[in-house]
Design a protein that fits this description.
Elements (H helix, E strand, L loop, with lengths): L3 E7 L3 H16 L3 E7 L5 H12 L4 E6 L4 H11 L4 E4 L5 E2 L1 H11 L11 E3 L2 E5 L2 E5 L5 E3 L2 H11 L9 E4 H7 L11 H9 L5 E3 L5 E4 L18 H15 L23 H22 L4 H11 L2 H11 L6 H12 L1 H11 L2
Parallel strand pairs: 1-2, 1-4, 2-3, 6-11, 7-12
Antiparallel strand pairs: 4-10, 5-12, 6-10, 7-8, 9-11
Helix pairs in contact: 1-2, 5-9, 7-8, 9-10, 9-11, 11-12, 12-13
């Protein structure tokens, strides 16, 4: 049987963590592993989890604690102690559909194309907002010979996600590649996913949505407190990802496409990487700050800062000349490329 390690980083989620653990409980009773890392919570999160583990008598649980170092550091610590064949990162304020999660794990045992075990299993999730629960993205079942095949195709289709919660990662491959989350900042997921998928072997994609990503009660768009300088760590994450990809000669293991030809490594100039940067920065910054920019001069300055960043401008230029990335993203990139000033108004209407 394939064993999965559920790695859960947590900070001050006492009221929500019980729901998360309850949905995982049937899977833990079937022999899978819980690795819970409390990131210096100041509430009763740690005590709540310890009480749950004791009450349910879970010998498969590892409950760790550390000073507050951020989600990236907590996940890295979980990787170091996980003993499962696959790793599934779960956020403590989210939860899973137990039946669909069980199906995902069952599919991990299925050999793909020639009996080679998948280095990653990718699936969809559900965005939960109050009474609404919407699947995203909509995926079809596919097997990719290499991570680069998956990376290129999913970025072209707009289904690649930089967060790790909708994926199972083969633990041995994570350690072989020494893939790790950036520590001490937000948007730590981008480089981990990039490092893994441009170097890994086979990827299995499933048309399932077992993960419930719970959207918080967002502040009103008129609330100036939503303007945060730390959001620009998204630009730092993009810079680091670009530098990493530039500095390394990527050796692809078992990187043979179905026709027998050697897969070409992803480079900084690859349209798939440029599409990733464009989508990532647009989602992290423009989606939030363009609506705010009509009420707050500081937010407008943030929009201009993003649009004039050299990596974003380069990504815009690439995407504006590749309509194959999808009409919506291509149209948005073309607007920014032709007229950054007017594009703010056009994009604002597109996001409504």
């Amino acid at each position: 049987m394939v064993k999965v390690s559920f790695i859960i980083p947590a900070f001050n989620v006492r009221q929500l963590v019980g729901r998360c653990l309850t949905t995982l409980l049937p899977l833990l009773r079937e022999g899978h592993e819980l690795v819970f890392v409390d990131d210096g919570s100041s509430d009763d999160t740690l005590q709540t989890v310890r009480a749950f583990v004791e009450a349910e008598q879970l010998p498969c649980a590892k409950v760790l604690t550390q000073s507050n170092r951020g989600q990236g550091a907590a996940r890295n610590r979980g990787i170091a102690v996980a003993s499962g064949d696959y790793i599934w990162f779960v956020d403590a304020d989210d939860f899973v559909d137990t039946a669909e999660a069980r199906q995902v794990i069952a599919d991990c045992t299925t050999a793909v194309d020639g009996g080679v075990t998948a280095d990653a299993v990718v699936f969809g999730l559900r965005l939960d907002d109050g009474q609404l629960s919407m699947p995203s993205p909509i995926l079809r079942q596919r097997s990719y010979a290499t991570g680069t095949d998956y990376f290129r195709e999913s970025n072209r289709e707009g289904t690649f996600r930089t967060f790790p919660v909708n994926k199972l990662f083969r633990a041995a491959k994570v350690r072989e590649l020494q893939a790790a989350f950036a520590e001490g900042r937000i948007y730590e997921d981008l480089q981990f996913n990039l490092e893994f998928f441009v170097q890994c072997g086979r990827v299995l994609q499933l048309p399932l949505n077992p993960y419930h990503y719970v959207l918080g009660n967002a502040d009103s768009s008129t609330n100036a407190s939503r303007i945060q300088e730390r959001d620009f760590q998204a630009l730092t994450a993009a810079e680091d990802a670009t530098a990493w990809l530039s500095d390394r000669v990527l050796v692809m293991h078992d990187a043979h496409a179905h026709d027998g030809s050697t897969a070409k490594p992803v480079t900084v100039g690859d349209i798939s990487f440029q599409t990733l940067l464009f989508s990532f920065l647009s989602s992290c910054l423009l989606r939030k700050y363009i609506p705010l920019s009509y009420m707050h001069p500081e937010a407008r300055a943030f929009v201009e800062r993003t649009m004039h960043h050299h990596l974003f401008r380069k990504a815009v230029r690439h995407c504006a000349t590749h309509p194959s990335i999808g009409l919506r993203r291509w149209g948005m990139a073309l607007c920014i490329w032709l007229s950054p000033r007017m594009s703010r108004h056009i994009i604002n209407r597109m996001m409504r």
